[in-house]
Amino acid sequence: MKSISILGSTGSIGCNALKTVAHLKDFRVVALAAGKNVEKLAEQIAEFQPELVACESEECAEELLRKISDSKFQIPKILVGEEGLIAVATHEKAETVVSATVGAVGFVPTLRALESGKRVALANKETLVMAGELMTKAARDNNAEILPVDSEHNALHQCLRGESIKEVKRLILTASGGPFRTKSKEEIENATVAEALNHPNWKMGDKITIDSATLMNKGLEVIEAHWLFGFNADEISVIVHPQSVVHSMIEMVDGSVIAQLGVTDMKHAIQYALTYPTRQTGCLEPLDFRKFSTLTFEEPDLEKFPCLALAYKALKTGGTMPAVLNAANEIAVQAFLDGKIRLSDIPRIIESVMNEHESESASSLEAILESDGWARTKANEFLTETASGAGL
Ligand code: MG
Fold first, then answer.
1. pLDDT tens-digit series, residues 217-236
2. Which residue has the higher pLDDT, 53 or 107?
3. Is the model's pLDDT at 199 over the cut of 90?
4. 311: CA distance to ligand 1 center in Å?
5. Rounded distance, CA 239 to CA 293, Å?
6. According to DSSP H, which parts of 175-281 are helical?
7. Among 70, 184, 283, 328, which is least packed, fewest CB within 10 Å?
């Protein structure tokens, strides 16, 4: 029996991880951390009976306790805030930690999990974008491992198995292109929140769905691939593949291309990350090739989707620039979801923040948190100007 804990258990990846665990049978859940969704957390506690749970605040903890206090099972220990997230991430019984919180909140807890020598099944790509150097060093120093849950990186991990890195010429990340792939610049400029949240292939949380609409998601994934697999910016390509059947590919020095294909359901990648290096019978329908008469590939349009170019720029600049890109993006995406700015303001705000940042070494936690905080403040300043119509 293997023990796991989950950061972000009530989100899209967290729920799929629990479904995967229920299917796998020889896994048990020892700790769960969620945000405000106490209702769902209470259901998860009843089904999986973890020893420890964490939620966002004291109020959430009180509400949670009310919901589960007269249950027949053992009431788990309940902690709150970052202390709770870290306790779940470092639970002594957990061998694997699924890191699936949204955005920067998962950063320190995920780092602590790696420092404790855990396997981290990583869905939270922001963590690697902000602090790839620190995260990968913590993994190396503590004999921990990072197994990517992001479908593209999970695919690359599968393609790279048994290959010699020096024989791999480049990584090719596929991108669905999002809901605005065929739309004009003007249509993107005036897109509504509902249109941006309408992803053609994948059902995901709000933040990542907006990132997919701007192609920032793919930009963050380029940076993530750099840290996971050690390839430089010019050795990582992005190709738009609207059907999302090919999850990613590697090109070898002899020109041969190895691809991983599958259905668009995150449970596959989660299961791979949990059971690696073995494989177990899956819980999904197999890929039905008869449903795909064509698979198409096209170049991403960097003019229509400047976020992708900004991410490449941040990776090439290095140091704290990716953390700044990530923080500014989080602020801008939330402002778009709140109806304060237009979709096309997102790259404008990020670029303005990046232009004012002088990148420095990102090898300490302090430097990263300071850049993250600085970028959020700056992004909020530009946001106020943008929302008031002053423009950038
Ligand atoms: Mg992905």
1. 999 999 999 999 999 999 99
2. 53
3. no
4. 15
5. 19
6. 185-189, 193-196, 206-214, 216-229, 266-275
7. 70
Q: How far is the CA of 246 from the centre of ligand 1 (A)?
A: 12
pLDDT tens-digit map of 111-165: 999 999 999 999 999 999 999 999 999 999 999 999 999 999 999 999 999 999 9
Mean pLDDT of the chain: 95
Query: What's the fold here for domain 318-392?
Result: Rna Polymerase Sigma Factor; Chain: A (1.10.1740)
Residues 223, 307: Cα–Cα separation, whole Å: 13
Q: 2-148: which CATH number, 3.40.50.2000, 3.40.30.10, 3.40.50.720, 3.30.70.1150?
A: 3.40.50.720
Question: Which tokens belong to 162?
Answer: 């048994």
For residue 232, what are its two tokens?
């430089």
Quick check: pTM over 0.85?
yes
What's the 17 CA to ligand 1 centre distance in angstroms? 16
Please give the distance, rounded to the nearest whole angstrom, from the Cα atom of residue 39 to the centre of ligand 1.
28
> Is-contact 173 218, C-beta < 8 A?
yes
Question: How far is residue 38's CA from residue 312's CA, in Å, rounded to a whole number?
Answer: 38
Residue 265's pLDDT is 93
* CATH 1.10.1740.10 segments of the chain: 318-392
Residue 152 CA to ligand 1 centre (angstroms):
5
List the one residue out of 346, 364, 350 whose CA is nearest residue 314: 350
208 C-alpha to ligand 1 centroid (Å): 9
